[in-house]
Amino acid sequence: MNYGKFLKKLIQNFNFVLSNLTDKNKIRKPILLLMVAVSLLLSGCVEYDVGVNFNNSNSGQLVQHIKLGEQLTSFSGDYVYEWLNSIERRARKLEGTAKRISRQEVVVTIPFSNGRELQTKFNEFFNSGRQQATETSAAENSELPKVESNLLVVQNNFLLVERNELIFDLDLRSLSLIASKGNVLADAGAILDLEFGLKTPWGAQNIQRVETAPQPEKKGGRLVWQLQPGELNHIEVVFWLPSPLGIGALLITLFVLGGIYLRYRFMPDPQLQFATKSPVTE
Fold it and tell me: How far, in Å, CA of 161 to CA of 42, rounded?
C-alpha cells in the first residue's frame, strides 16, 4: 500500500509548524508536540477498509472504503486530496468505479471474475505505488517507510463447487512509529485504522499458521481482520464457492435425461403404433 508518501507528508507538516515557532513559543515546543499527538490519537486520521466479496466462483468485487480525518486534511489538504484522486484513477484503470461520498471519503469498487483476476488486480492496485516511488530522489526514498503487500488465491474445481484458499501478507513493521529524525510523533496504530474483510456465500474458515496472526471477527455476515501497524500481518482462510458452470452443466444433463425418460416411458414408439394399425393380409 502507498502509505509512505502520505505519512512523510504528515511528518513534514508537523515539522513545518514547529520550526516556525517564535523563540518564546519554542519553549513550549514539547507541549505543543504532545497536544498535536494527543489530538490525533483521540480521533484517528485514516480509516482504510479493504473488502473482498465473492458472489460465486465467477463473480466478485474488491471494495475499498477510505475515510480521512479532519485533522489530517487541515494539516495537508491538497496532498491527501490528490492521494484520493490517485486511488480513483488506479481503480478506473482496473475497470473499477469510485464513489466520492465527500472530499475526505471515497468508496472504490473493482470487479473480478475469478480468483486469478482478483489476485492480479489486487496486487497491481496496491503495489502500483512502488513504481512511483522509484521516480523520486534517492534521499527522499530513504525516508519513506516500506510497506509490502501480496495476495495469493489458490482455486481447486470439484465440478459443482470450488475450494478456495486465500493468503494475504501485509508487512507494516515500518509503521510501528511515526517519527522524524529520531523524534517520535505518534503511535501509528492509533492514527491508522486498517481492516481487511472477506464475504462469501457459505462462510469461511480462518487458518492460523502463526500465533501472532490477527484473529477475525464476524461483522454483518463477513469476516473482518484488524490489521496491526508495526507487525507482519498474515491472513490465511479457506472457503467453498458454488460453481455456476458445473451446476448449469448438471441441470442440462438432468433435463436431457428426464426428456429421454418421458419420451420412452409415456409416448409409444411410432413404428410399433404404425404396425398395429396396418391391415392384415390373408
Answer: 47
Domains of the chain by residue range = 4-244, 246-277
pTM score of the predicted model:
0.72
3-state SS track over the chain: CCCHHHHHHHHHHHHHHHHCCCHHHHCCHHHHHHHHHHHHHHHCCEEEEEEEEEEECCEEEEEEEEEECHHHHHHHHHHHHHHHHHHHHHHHHCCCEEEEEECCEEEEEEEECCHHHHHHHHHHHHHCHHHHHHCCCHHHHHHCCCCEEEEEEEEEEECCEEEEEEEEEEECHHHCEEEECCEEEEEHHHHEEEEEEEECCCCCEECCCCCCCCCCEEECCEEEEEECCCCEEEEEEEEEEECHHHHHHHHHHHHHHHHHHHHHHHCCCHHHHHHHHCCCCC
What would the mean pLDDT of 1-23 be, rounded to a whole number? 50
The CA distance from 267 to 257, in Å, is 15
Residue 266: half-sphere exposure toward Cβ, Cα within 13 Å: 5
Which segment of 10-14, 50-54, 228-232, 269-273 scores lowest on mean pLDDT?
10-14
Q: If we measure between CA atoms, which residue out of 195, 1, 194 comes closest to residue 90?
A: 1
Q: How many CB atoms lie within 10 A of CB 272?
A: 9
Distance of alpha carbon 39 from alpha carbon 139, whole angstroms: 30
Contact 100, 106 (CB under 8 A): yes
